[in-house]
Design a protein that fits this description.
The protein is an alpha/beta fold. It is about 35% helix and about 15% strand. The two termini are about 25 Å apart.
Length: about 350
């Protein structure tokens, strides 16, 4: 199998500028190349601001992108689009574009699979693949921006809540955040970027020193260790009170409140006891509780609460003096939960292989 050419966004800026200089191209050509990629040029031949000879040399040396779309699904009258991408090496990741009246949001993946192993999550049902490189994360955002631009919309928000635990792939995630927010690239403000974690405390502490004003989201799901040990196994290493202390240290340093994510599992973590424990944990903290109705996942024992049950739990949490909302769940008919499109495609491949 021939060796793949490097993707343009994988090449460091200094290396690309040197490559261009060796071919007699002026320094400003690098900015033109990057701008063409950001605007979704489908091929080097479409980079019309570049000389034809330079386009040909770029085409012989590089690929415009490394991600290959292999499946997609739509829901909510085409307001939600999920795309499954194949990476170099064969692993797959998902990205989801969600369109709202006042914004367009991309839910982005940072790993192929997830090693944390939360039992209610579809992503964790398959073996962990690998970390994504920074350019592979950025390419998901570039592709979403291209899709939205064709509709007359602009990608305005990015959330790292797709496949994977971002803080286990910390270096690439932070580099991709800096790229996505770069004024010469997609120019999305860090304040419109949410980075989630299941609770990798050392990386939360490291993020505090980055001086990147992103919103930190904690995948909490339980306020007592014995339940969170089951729902979020990394809690056995980083207990919940230590996690909240670290996240509030970030809130104090950044001035940005922390979002605590809570997937509601009927009869498991949506009781009056859970609401009281959550109140004790977060009261008078710089915090917002984001309740998420569970998207059913095959082969798990969990079910979603009814709408009445979700409203009841929201009211119980609010009664604790906490700022709380219920997330507008998108795409239930389109492999909604993270990892489900991947699961459907992988199962179809298994069926084909057996036949």
């Amino acid at each position: 199998m021939p060796e793949l050419k490097p993707a343009l966004l994988s090449v460091p800026k200094d290396d690309m500028e040197s490559w261009l200089a060796e071919r007699g191209a002026p320094a400003y050509r690098h900015a033109q190349v990057i701008a063409s990629v950001m605007h979704g040029a489908p091929s080097f031949d479409e980079m019309h601001e570049l000389p034809r000879s330079l386009r040909a040399e770029l085409d012989s040396a590089f690929r415009i992108r490394s991600l290959r779309p292999i499946a997609n699904s739509e829901a909510d009258r085409s307001l939600t689009t999920k795309t499954l991408y194949e990476l170099d090496g064969g692993h797959t990741v998902e990205a989801v574009v969600m369109r709202y009246p006042d914004r367009s949001t991309l839910c982005i993946s940072s790993q192929a699979g997830c090693p944390v192993g939360c039992p209610f999550c579809a992503t964790g049902k398959f073996p962990f693949g690998r970390n994504l490189d920074a350019h592979e994360i950025e390419e998901q955002a570039v592709d979403a921006a291209r899709l939205l631009a064709a509709e007359g919309r602009r990608l305005s928000h990015v959330v790292f809540m797709g496949m994977g635990e971002p803080f286990i792939n910390y270096k690439a995630v932070i580099e991709s955040v800096r790229r996505i927010s770069d004024p010469e690239r997609l120019a999305i403000s860090p304040r419109r970027i949410v980075v989630s974690t299941s609770g990798v405390i050392p990386r939360i502490e490291q993020l505090r020193e980055e001086k990147l004003p992103v919103t930190l989201a904690i995948s909490l799901h339980a306020a007592r260790d014995e339940l969170r040990d089951v729902l979020v196994p990394i809690n056995r290493k980083y207990p919940v009170r230590d996690l909240v202390q670290a996240s509030q240290s970030y809130a104090k340093a950044s001035g940005r409140r922390v979002s605590y994510e809570w997937v509601m599992l009927a009869g498991v973590n949506d009781t009056e006891r859970d609401a009281r424990e959550l109140g004790v944990l977060l009261r008078r903290k710089l915090a917002h509780v984001n309740l998420i109705p569970f998207n059913p996942v095959d082969d798990t024992p969990y079910v979603a609460p009814s709408r009445e049950g979700a409203r009841r739990f929201r009211d119980l949490v609010a009664a604790q003096g906490l700022n709380v909302t219920v997330r507008d769940t998108r795409g239930r008919e389109a492999d909604a939960a993270c990892g489900q499109l991947h699961e459907r495609v992988m199962k179809s491949k298994e069926v084909v292989a057996v036949k």
